[in-house]
Specification:
- This protein is α+β, with helices and mostly antiparallel strands.
- Helices cover 22% and strands 38% of the residues.
- The chain has an eight-stranded antiparallel sheet, covered by helices on one side. Strands 14, 15, 16, 17 and 18 form a five-stranded antiparallel sheet that branches. Strands 19, 24, 25, 26 and 27 form a five-stranded antiparallel sheet that branches.
- β6 and β7 form a beta hairpin.
- α3 packs parallel to α4.
Length: 420
């Protein structure tokens, strides 16, 4: 199925879906699912779901709305490329030199559909990174930009307080692999900071808000007023923030509603506990007021930003931490020791199975307790144990542990301030 963007969204906010055809005569619908940046340009792996790609023709990127020419089309055989003139429904081919991102949908011109985007999990760990030699800064920048384009789960950002470059990903090994690739492929030695868990904050109760922003400083002033309810979204929500426009009777002019949405969302960047990102928030804007002269988009954005910060302080915000799913393989005689060690890390064993003297243990544990687990497992099992670990879900931090985490966060911020 594809999303039909030509028709209005329903009450649930989603556009209707249409069934795709496997006919080669139907309009093209294909998805870019993987990108690789090489010396000659970007190589984009693409699956054709409907219609046919023809070399040299132009197609529309549904995300950007821009027309893109497919100048070269290849079929991949391991590392070898076979130039082809076209591809049909069901084929997986690669586009050469097309500027796009993973998850982009391409269609025949005039067709307004898109495929469901690729799910990208939130990053759960961060590291600061900088080149050992100042002259290698350009190499590092090029490497990070390439990896960011290739891997949607790899994030690059700047610490607003220190100006340091941060990389974020799905686990310690994930980031260590990229650091090693930077050293090997770009000949750039890097200094890497200690891993930091990407905690989040979330409200635990609904709160009504009624907030006014008034400012008068000679000439025209600023006035905005918003009223409504902040509600927590369920932990299983696929979106961190949801905005519901419930204004009736022109209490707030339509042109100011997007500014309210922007202001609310900006207020989620730093939470009231440890200035972590706030998630699982739904803002229902139900009422408000404006002034014919003093109201503006900027006034309503500032109002919404201040409203969000004030309302979160009343919403009994709690910390969330990433939990990881583990599969551990050890000789049977170490089973009891491993399960006991996991319990000491706030881990939970969800199952185990013994086969041929090897015990496979399935478990869940908070990421904060799993740093250096590879060395710990090696030590406990005389080097005979192995494990895999992947992100599972965010879960609320026990109330008793929150003060310790927040105190560590406070000391980090003080240390950063002292560096300025």
């Amino acid at each position: 199925y594809a999303i039909d963007n030509s028709k209005p969204a329903g009450e649930d906010g989603h556009h209707p879906r249409v069934l795709l055809s496997d006919s080669n005569d139907a309009p093209l619908v294909c998805m870019a699912f993987k990108t690789v940046v090489e010396s000659f340009g970007q190589l984009t792996y693409t699956r054709v779901y409907q219609g046919r790609i023809v070399k040299g023709q132009s197609y529309t990127n549904a995300r950007t709305g821009k027309s893109v020419r497919f100048g070269r089309l290849v079929r991949m055989h391991a590392n070898e490329r076979e130039d082809i003139d076209g591809a049909e429904a069901g084929d997986i081919v690669a586009l050469v030199g097309v500027d796009c991102a993973s998850g982009d949908t391409f269609t025949s011109e005039g067709v307004s559909v898109s495929l469901e985007n690729i799910f990208v999990a939130n990053a759960v760990i961060r590291l600061s990174i900088e080149p050992k030699k100042r002259d290698d800064a350009d190499k590092l920048s090029k490497a990070l930009e390439r990896f960011r384009r290739e891997d949607p789960t790899f994030r690059v950002m700047t610490d607003e307080e220190t100006g340091q470059t941060l990389i974020a990903g799905m686990g310690q090994l994930h980031l260590e692999i990229y650091v090693e690739r930077i050293r090997r492929e770009y000949k750039c030695e890097c200094v890497v900071g200690e891993p930091r868990v990407a905690y989040r904050e979330c409200p635990t109760k609904a709160v009504e808000f009624d907030y006014k922003h008034k400012k008068q400083s000679g000439g025209s002033g600023q006035y905005a007023h918003v009223k409504g309810i902040l509600e927590p979204l369920p932990e299983t929500s696929e979106v961190p923030y949801e905005f519901s426009d419930e204004i009736t009777g022109g209490r707030i002019p339509r042109e100011y509603i997007p500014a309210c949405d922007d202001g609310f969302e900006e207020g989620l960047k730093k939470g009231p506990l440890g200035e972590y990102e706030v998630v699982n928030v739904k803002m229902r804007l139900q009422d408000g007021s404006y002034h014919d002269v003093d109201s503006s988009e900027m006034a309503f954005k500032i109002c919404a930003l201040g409203c969000m910060r004030e309302t979160l302080r009343k919403a009994e915000v709690a910390l969330q931490e990433p939990f990881m799913k583990l599969e551990i393989e050890v000789p049977e005689e170490f089973q009891g020791q491993i399960t006991g060690h996991l319990s000491s890390k706030r881990g939970l064993v969800t199952g185990s199975e013994v086969n041929g003297g090897i015990c496979v243990i399935n478990a869940e544990a908070p990421l904060s307790s799993m740093f250096d687990y590879a060395n710990e497992l090696r030590s406990m099992t005389q080097g005979k144990g192995t494990f895999t670990m992947e992100f599972l879900a965010y879960r609320q931090v026990p109330r008793g542990l929150q003060p310790e985490i927040l105190e560590k966060r406070r000391k980090e911020k003080e240390a950063k301030a002292a560096m300025k």
